[in-house]
């Protein structure tokens, strides 16, 4: 077996709309192609011995042990690898369950798709699953040390990708509220929401957290001074910078007991509490100084009481936890060292911050605490006697937390909220020492020790004792108050042909409303009227760029087949999803071999539309109509045929539609008709004689109307959108060259040739075509292009793209010529002339040089910009509104009813 390709999907995709995170492996089973698991000696026994936990996989039988029963009866290796990849992740602490395996049209080649929790771990699991199964096939087992290493590596990958417990808590709350999120590629920031509604966090700092407040909170002495001036009870203390000042400082605060901490520390590093003698104070000073960036140390009077962390979010106390330092309790039998080991065996404890509790590490500080008690690691404590192992109660050093939220005295609740306001933090962690949190601080000599920016949530979300508190809910309430949206409207467009024109027209229409539109197309990413990034940008990364931009108020996203297959959609749901058409293009790529499979790819856009939104579907395309069965949203149809039975039935039941009727682009809703504009007044329709452009315009108008755009804005958009090199480069760009005209269009597949032909064949003069196609299409597709071209043009020049996409130079042109010859062979006296000029620039110049008076030169280029430059170098006549009006065309061959022209 060998892996041919591994892809990572991060959004709704061909395999699943709901399961966004999938690994897809293209796997060649080689010698195992026709071998079922039941035919491989010892395989079942070996697999169940190595991974007995596979008994929990239900698989298609739907019962425990269902998958293993299929292995025992016989199943193909691709299916087994899918389940092994899932189980390896499960064993490494990453719960995943979804998988699919499908054989491709190539014998022995399978697509194995399975869910991942962390994408690097998912890819590793796929490779490890192949290694494991191959080993069992060959030897009957998989070495224990190999499996152990695999699981350790997977756990390490998971740990490396961890965002931290506080961040993950907020993310889970956002997901519960269906607020989208994405990780930004800088400073571990997370964006919630889209476009102009976005909010950001970094750990538990938000974009609303003031920098002055953070700076003040990091200055422990400055914080204490501000609070003291406001009448808040704080410890007596001073700041020193040299060891020689230590004794005077102890005297200044009134002697022992004292606490020493770094001036600018965090996470409890360098803090020593309840110091009662000089030797301990000297050691504590050294530790605090080393932990301080400025080498400055705070020395405070130590106040007896219990340590509490108060969390205030948006001016409201939301949780309080009592923090207990790491400790053990004697039982009269086990040594201190054995008690620590026993404590660490608690399944809630682990390394770092990802677990409810952290393992206790025996270090110099722990040994010092044990020694102060007059004990060693070998000492046995009497039953019930407590030995504290840390002076501080931080969870990161093994401490535990007890929820005390419901016990806080009302005066303290008010005080804590006031403190957060005084410091200026929207999310504040306030450290309080008091004998009794249920009594006002002043009455029990309680004090505010410090105020922290970016406080941890772990102790509140998963306390060792008491009720968990949904503190992340308070953060989300602050970032997105009730009634405030988190998403900008998303209108997505897909289809085989017309995507870019429809996307640009739809964006142009919405601009008429005054909103800032971000949109993606095959020629660039645009924010408003500005090109943000040139090039083909129709994949998920381009969509993410738009949705990350804080200037965007509406997103219009062109979604191409390649991006959906390669990585999934760049968004989880949309308000309007438009599917223009599905035809035989790009077949044979990405294991998509039939129009039906391609329709499934395109239907992803329609299927992710939210229930209150609209899926805009082409009622004239049977493959698109079938998508309605899988759509959860409302349906809106568009059609070029006002008698379309699907649309008539749909509107009779109150449905929404757009129809080309009596020469008008009209909206139908129930039994009323709202006419938008006559096609002859819509520039991109070439005076109403380009049917495919009318269809594109119908789709754009319907999508805008479904989104709530007013008719006057739609009409204004239609009348000002020109098929020019500035607004639609490479899409029906007509140039007046004086004696003749030239047309540039990016038609590159049979369906687009047919659509273009419906316009070109009406041209009253000679028609010259410079034609070709992308090299990664099937042989039969090129032959079809030649056949269609012979039906459209009087003269044909066959050229090839500079990038042959893996084909031998000249082979694509030869196949196109073959198609032309097949048509000419059936004509008694063919008048069509054709030749092959492989170089695109030479082919274009030859056609332009040979153009006769009144002729039309149609250029179907690889490089739109190059073709435009070649034409503009010949100084075309500049028409008003930057568009060349075609001469009066014949209508006898148009694919429209006479009454519609």
From TrEMBL:
Instruction: Give the keywords, sorted.
Output: ATP-binding, Ligase, Nucleotide-binding
* Source taxon at top rank: Bacteria
The answer to whether the entry has keyword ATP-binding is: yes
Q: What class of enzyme is it?
A: ligase
Q: Name one GO molecular function term.
A: cyanophycin synthetase activity (L-arginine-adding)
Query: Which is one Pfam family of this protein?
Result: Cyanophycin_syn
Q: Where is this region: Disordered?
A: 875-901
Quaternary data: Homodimer.
> Hey, which family's this protein in?
In the C-terminal section; belongs to the MurCDEF family.
Name the chain's protein: Cyanophycin synthetase
Can you name the source organism?
Answer: Planktothrix serta PCC 8927
């Amino acid at each position: 077996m060998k892996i041919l390709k591994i892809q990572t999907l991060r959004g709704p995709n061909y395999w699943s709309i709901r399961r966004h995170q999938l690994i897809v492996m293209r796997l060649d089973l080689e010698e195992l192609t026709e071998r079922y698991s039941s035919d491989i000696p010892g395989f079942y026994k070996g697999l169940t011995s190595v991974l007995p936990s596979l008994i929990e996989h239900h698989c298609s039988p739907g019962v425990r042990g269902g998958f293993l029963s299929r292995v025992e009866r016989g199943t193909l290796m691709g299916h087994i690898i899918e389940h092994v990849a899932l189980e390896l992740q499960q064993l490494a602490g990453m719960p995943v369950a979804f998988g699919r395996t499908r054989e491709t049209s190539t014998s022995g080649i399978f697509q194995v798709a399975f869910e991942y929790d962390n994408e690097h771990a998912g890819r590793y699991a796929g490779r490890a699953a192949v290694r494991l199964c191959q080993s069992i096939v060959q030897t009957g087992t998989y070495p224990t040390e190999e499996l152990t290493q695999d699981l350790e590596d997977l756990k390490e990958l998971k740990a490396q990708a961890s965002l931290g417990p506080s961040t993950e808590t907020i993310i889970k709350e956002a997901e519960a509220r269906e607020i989208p999120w994405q990780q930004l590629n800088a400073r571990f920031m997370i964006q919630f929401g889209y476009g102009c509604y976005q909010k950001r966090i970094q750990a538990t700092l938000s974009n609303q957290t003031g920098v002055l407040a953070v700076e003040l909170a990091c200055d422990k002495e400055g914080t204490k001074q501000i609070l003291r001036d406001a009448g808040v009870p704080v410890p007596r203390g001073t700041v020193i910078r040299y060891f020689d000042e230590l004794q005077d400082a102890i005297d200044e605060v009134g002697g022992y007991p004292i606490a020493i901490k770094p001036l600018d520390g965090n996470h409890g590093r360098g803090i020593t509490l309840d110091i009662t003698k000089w030797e301990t104070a000297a050691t504590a000073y050294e530790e605090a100084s080393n932990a301080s960036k400025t080498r400055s140390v705070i020395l405070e009077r130590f106040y007896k009481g219990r340590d509490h962390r108060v969390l205030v979010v948006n001016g409201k106390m939301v949780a309080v936890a009592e923090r207990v330092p790491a400790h053990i309790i004697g039982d009269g039998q086990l040594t201190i060292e054995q008690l620590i080991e026993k404590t660490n065996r608690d399944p809630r404890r682990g390394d770092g911050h990802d677990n409810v509790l952290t393992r206790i590490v025996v270090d110099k500080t722990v040994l010092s605490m044990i020694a102060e008690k007059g004990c060693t690691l070998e000492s046995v404590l009497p039953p019930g006697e407590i030995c504290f192992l840390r002076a501080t109660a931080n969870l990161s050093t093994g401490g535990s937390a007890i929820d005390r939220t419901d016990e806080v005295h009302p005066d303290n609740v008010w005080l804590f909220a006031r403190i957060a306001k005084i410091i200026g933090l929207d999310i504040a962690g306030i450290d309080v020492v008091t004998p009794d949190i249920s009594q006002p601080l002043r009455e029990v000599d309680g004090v505010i020790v410090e105020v922290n920016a970016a406080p941890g949530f772990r102790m509140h979300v998963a306390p060792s004792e008491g009720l968990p508190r949904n503190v992340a809910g308070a953060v989300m309430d602050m970032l997105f108050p009730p009634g405030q949206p988190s998403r900008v409207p998303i209108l997505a467009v897909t289809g085989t042909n017309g995507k870019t024109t429809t996307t640009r027209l739809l964006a142009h229409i919405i601009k008429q409303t005054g909103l800032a539109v971000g949109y993606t197309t095959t020629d660039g990413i645009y924010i408003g009227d500005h090109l943000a990034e040139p090039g083909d940008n129709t994949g998920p990364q381009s969509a993410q760029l738009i949705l990350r931009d804080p200037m965007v108020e509406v997103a219009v996203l062109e979604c191409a087949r390649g991006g959906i297959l390669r990585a999934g959609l760049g968004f989880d749901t949309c308000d309007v999803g438009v599917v223009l058409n599905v035809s035989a293009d790009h077949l044979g790529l990405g294991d998509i071999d039939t129009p039906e499979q391609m329709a499934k790819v395109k239907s992803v856009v329609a299927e992710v539309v939210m229930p209150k939104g609209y899926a805009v579907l082409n009622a004239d395309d049977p493959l698109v109509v079938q998508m309605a069965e899988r759509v959860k949203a409302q349906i809106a149809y568009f059609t070029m045929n006002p008698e379309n039975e699907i649309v008539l039935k749909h509107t009779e039941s109150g449905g929404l539609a757009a129809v080309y009727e009596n020469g008008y682009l009209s909206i139908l809703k129930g039994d009323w008709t709202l006419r938008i504009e006559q096609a002859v007044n819509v520039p991109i329709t070439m005076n109403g004689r380009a049917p495919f452009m009318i269809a594109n315009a119908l789709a754009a108008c319907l999508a805008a109307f479904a989104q709530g755009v007013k008719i006057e804005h739609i009409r204004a958009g239609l009348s000002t959108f020109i098929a020019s090199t500035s607004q639609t480069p490479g899409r029906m760009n007509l140039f007046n060259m004086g004696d003749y005209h030239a047309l540039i269009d990016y038609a590159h597949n049979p369906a687009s040739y047919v659509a273009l032909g419906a316009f070109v064949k009406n041209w009253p003069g000679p028609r010259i075509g410079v034609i070709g196609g992308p090299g990664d299409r099937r042989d039969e597709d090129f032959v079809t292009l030649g056949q269609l071209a012979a039906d459209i043009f009087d003269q044909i020049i066959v050229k090839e793209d500079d990038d042959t996409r893996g084909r031998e130079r000249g082979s694509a042109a030869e196949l196109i010529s073959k198609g032309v010859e097949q048509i000419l062979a059936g004509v008694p006296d063919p008048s069509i002339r054709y030749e092959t000029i492989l170089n695109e620039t030479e082919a274009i110049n030859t056609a332009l040089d040979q153009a006769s008076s009144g002729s039309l030169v149609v250029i179907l280029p690889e490089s739109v910009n190059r073709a435009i430059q070649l034409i503009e170098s010949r100084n075309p006549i500049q028409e008003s509104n930057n568009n060349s009006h075609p001469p009066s065309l014949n209508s006898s061959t148009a694919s429209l009813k006479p009454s519609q022209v």
